[in-house]
Amino acid sequence: MINAEILKIVGAVAGIGGISLGVLLIVFREIIRKNIFPQLTRQNAYSLLRLIVILVWTIALVGIVAWVYTSIRRCCINRLRKRLNGKIFLP
Fold it and tell me: What CA–CA distance (Å, rounded) separates 70 from 15?
């Protein structure tokens, strides 16, 4: 239940980017909760945690870029509509 609540909150706040980041957070949280770290060597445990951090950072960066792109696109479409007196329909 808590996973669905997390996805609902991040989806409402950050849209599709938030949902994707929320899914990653849930998946990686479950990986960290598993008791696999005592079975791994120090180097493997470090590599796994570093990989998780890099992937979360990359997904967050992609989400920010997508948000900026859609914000700029929306602004340009609104300006175009004003210039054409609303005679244009763009999704």
Answer: 11
Distance CA 55, CA 45 (A): 15
pLDDT, tens digit, 9 for 90 and up, residues 32-56: 787 787 888 999 989 988 988 888 7
**CA 86, CA 50: separation in Å to the nearest integer?**
50
DSSP structural state of residue 85: T
Angle at 82 between CA 81 and CA 85, to 5 degrees: 80
Q: What does the alpha-carbon distance between residue 88 and residue 81 come to, in Å, rounded to a whole number?
A: 6
Residue 2 confidence (pLDDT): 61
Give the N- to C-terminal CA distance of the chain in Å, as an integer: 34
What does the alpha-carbon distance between residue 47 and residue 19 come to, in Å, rounded to a whole number?
26
Its pTM stands at 0.57
Report the 10 Å Cβ neighbour count for 20: 19
